[in-house]
Amino acid sequence: MTQISESTILATFDDLVSKGSIIYGPYETVNGDVDGYPMAFRICPSLTKKPHAVGAKLDPSFDKSEKWGPGSDMYLTDQRLRVAVLNGTHDLALNLFAIDRPQFVLLTLDSYRRQHEPLDVDDFKAALEMVNELKDIYAIFNCSEAAGCSRVHKHMQGLRGPPTAFDSFTKGSSKIPFKSFAHHFTSGFSSVPASDILGVYQQFLEKTRKLLGKNEQEVCPHNVVLWRDWMIVVPRRQAAVEKASANAAGMLGSVWVPERSGVDVWLRLGCKSVLEQLGAPATKE
């Protein structure tokens, strides 16, 4: 990865926001707790322009924008969104709909790859480049619409860390309200081969299939988080309960909503109940 300074990235991000090529704006954070499992709801009015389901149309202002390849449903509103090519297989780019300053998206150069496909070794190689080169960024993957994705071009995202509830996983907390699998790579993301991460991931994916009753030919909804030398995999049963939805970051306590009513839905339904239904209720091994 070509070295790009954080100041350069931020300057580009701010300029693209000012020109409307990136959607980002002020937000409010409401902190909560689910029986010892921390939650943070970020109310981002700018997200009203974001499509929240596969196939949903973008804001009309993007209709004439170039797409990110012939098979892509991602939009390239400005060539400066491209930051670098990683591993020769992925574009690292600034995310069009940002909740962080900045937020990244890591897209396959093969724009016909799809979001319901499991991660492969090239995905992990590119993700490792991203988290190792960019300061305080964690990677997430939402495998299929049931796991919270809204675009089908295969991609991961890079967000400002830490995930709100990350410590619950590293400490083996009994307060996590859904089933998950976690592994610490003791050699660190700076040294571990992508093939080693893939091997652990495939073991977790097989456990997820069994838990969800999926065979290898079926789509297996799940989330992946990579942060501070840990990989966390969360089996998913659905994307939303009523209008309470979550992607990988949301399952780790960082929920994004466009307006306060989104928080109210979570509170009305009960955060623990929502998380259990989005994932699978936690069970003792």
TrEMBL record:
It comes from the Eukaryota. Residues 41-159 form the Ap4A phosphorylase 1/2 N-terminal domain. Residues 175-281 form the ATP adenylyltransferase C-terminal domain. One of its GO terms (biological process) is nucleotide metabolic process. SUPFAM superfamilies: HIT-like (SSF54197). One of its GO terms (molecular function) is ATP binding. PANTHER family: AP-4-A PHOSPHORYLASE II, PUTATIVE (AFU_ORTHOLOGUE AFUA_5G14690)-RELATED. This is Uncharacterized protein. The lineage of its organism: Eukaryota, Fungi, Dikarya, Ascomycota, Pezizomycotina.
